Amino acid sequence: MKETTSPADQLDELVSVERGEIDRRIFSDQEIFDMEMKHIFGRAWLFLCHETQIPKRGDFFEAPMGSDNVLVVRQKDGSIRAFLNTCSHRGNAVCRAEEGNVRNFMCTYHGWTFGLDGELIGVPGKSIFYKDKLDLSKHPLRKVAQLDSYRGFVFATFDETAPPLEEYLGPTGRLGLDLLAERGDIEAVPGVQKFVVKTNWKFTVDNVFDYYHPQITHMSAFAVGLIPAPADDFVEGGAMTETGANLEVPFLPTDLHNVVMVGEYGHAISGPDQDSLEVTAGGREPFAWRYKPETQEKLGHHGSRVAGHPHIFPTTWVNAGGQLSLRVPRSPGVTEIWWFSFRDKNASPEEKAATLSAQIHFFGPAGLLEQEDGENWAQSTLQTRGTVSREVPQLLKMGLGTSEIVKDDGLAIIDAPINEHAQLWTYHAWREWLRNPTWEELRQRTMPGDRL
Ligand code: FES
Ligand SMILES: [Fe+2]
């Protein structure tokens, strides 16, 4: 890309699906980041919280929507509303807590007070200083354009012309959330783990689908037994030992394959096929959640065989351990990671404790996997800033152009060895969002074809 040309005019050069190449500048340019905030985060349905986090009237949760923050609030009639956490007087945040319960929101600057519905209900000195000339009804907190829930997961959009949530999610996005909702009568574990990684948000997203890296990046997790290593007879060249030392060739078996599902608007699911995982575990407990037979029926053939890694565009990852992660872009080089953990309300205290322990040990600030991933993302981001380094393209060529997309059950499915299809799909959709098309144009352009 030429430095003097606007990124908006260079989108085809920035992401080439045909070549499987991505221009590194998309990970560091402020102008591109600003376009993302406007054209993606200013329009998409974004995950806010789970309904069980705000069960009672007056419960609230502060959630990010792109570069804005909103308060998601349980209303007196049990419904949910969301509005910007910025005072209509002079902009101060009207709420400083991340979550809690209130009767109303009083701004700490001059005391303007807003009801649970965001309406302005109190102004100090309304008669004396404003001479009763201020029309309170004209200055509520700014509401989101649309808010809706799917199976308890609350989403909102700033775009009043956006399609309804269920249509936006489509079969791929809905399946992603079903995979979590079907883990029992679920509730969110109190508290959200939040931490910062010096990375561009897109690295954290494309990594969701990357099943090429665990064998190298997460070697220590295999070594300490956090993830069961594959059986010895699957080790090509016999290079992997029990302790993970002497790794000379990749040990992931060549017959381990991915189930990839690509969906409209950029949603995707890509993880190892459940059966394939069980084979590679070589009789040991497979590193995957197996649903009860009746649940498998509900999820359908494809839903019950995909072992995780659904992603709802742009930044919501539903992970296989009963968690949901938001990747919150704060600047081109800084991303906040939020982890929501879920459990079955009816589980025993021991089961709940075991679930939480596993969730904490895999992901989040104390999670071994995420510490390892975070190092890669930070380094990859850093290298996109080098004057010369940034001219070297990112490659997503694995399996490029070789896979047939089969349409079944409303899903667009690829069964193939480990590949980079879902990553490429995500960047394809990203490019189409940045063109700022109409919703119908966007849907058409992100409709899966016959091959990837
Ligand atoms: S900024 Fe909120 S009351 Fe003045
Ligand atoms: Fe990882």
Automatic annotation (TrEMBL):
Keywords associated with the record: 2Fe-2S, Dioxygenase, Iron, Iron-sulfur, Metal-binding, NAD, Oxidoreductase
What InterPro entries does its record include?
Answer: ARHD_Rieske_2Fe_2S (IPR015881), Rieske_2Fe-2S (IPR017941), Rieske_2Fe-2S_sf (IPR036922), Ring_hydroxy_dOase_asu_C_dom (IPR015879), Rng_hydr_dOase-A (IPR001663)
Q: Does the keyword Iron-sulfur apply?
A: yes
Looking at the keywords, is Iron present?
Answer: yes
- Name the Pfam families on file: Rieske, Ring_hydroxyl_A
Q: Which residues form the Rieske domain?
A: 46-125
| Highest taxon listed in the record's lineage | Bacteria
Which family, according to the similarity comment?
Answer: Belongs to the bacterial ring-hydroxylating dioxygenase alpha subunit family.
Name it: Rieske 2Fe-2S domain-containing protein
Species of origin reads: Dactylosporangium fulvum
